[in-house]
Design a protein that fits this description.
mainly alpha, single chain, DNA polymerase, domain 1
């Protein structure tokens, strides 16, 4: 888990954490940012690539998918997005 007092060590992880916690809507900041903050130090390069792709999605879509209001469409479905959704369901 990332210690809030100790930011991730490398620039890419710091950028991803910032993007995940400053999405634009409070709900998505909490859902995405919380997930990323807890895991960012353990993400592989491939997982960070997948996270970057998810972060390109609009906030409204992410919020709907992560809360289960709308099913994740096949063209957006990926392991990272499913992990985010599963973590949101646990919160």
């Amino acid at each position: 888990m990332t210690d809030p007092e100790q930011p991730p060590r490398d620039a890419r992880r710091r950028r991803l954490l910032y993007r995940a916690t400053h999405r634009g809507t409070h709900e998505t900041d909490l859902l995405v940012g919380g997930f990323v903050a807890r895991r960012i130090d353990r993400f592989s390069d491939a997982e960070m690539d997948a996270l970057e792709a998810v972060l390109e999605r609009p906030d409204t879509d992410l919020a709907d998918w992560l809360t289960g209001r709308v099913a994740i469409p096949p063209e957006a479905d990926c392991p990272m997005l499913r992990a985010l959704r599963d973590a949101a369901g646990e919160a």
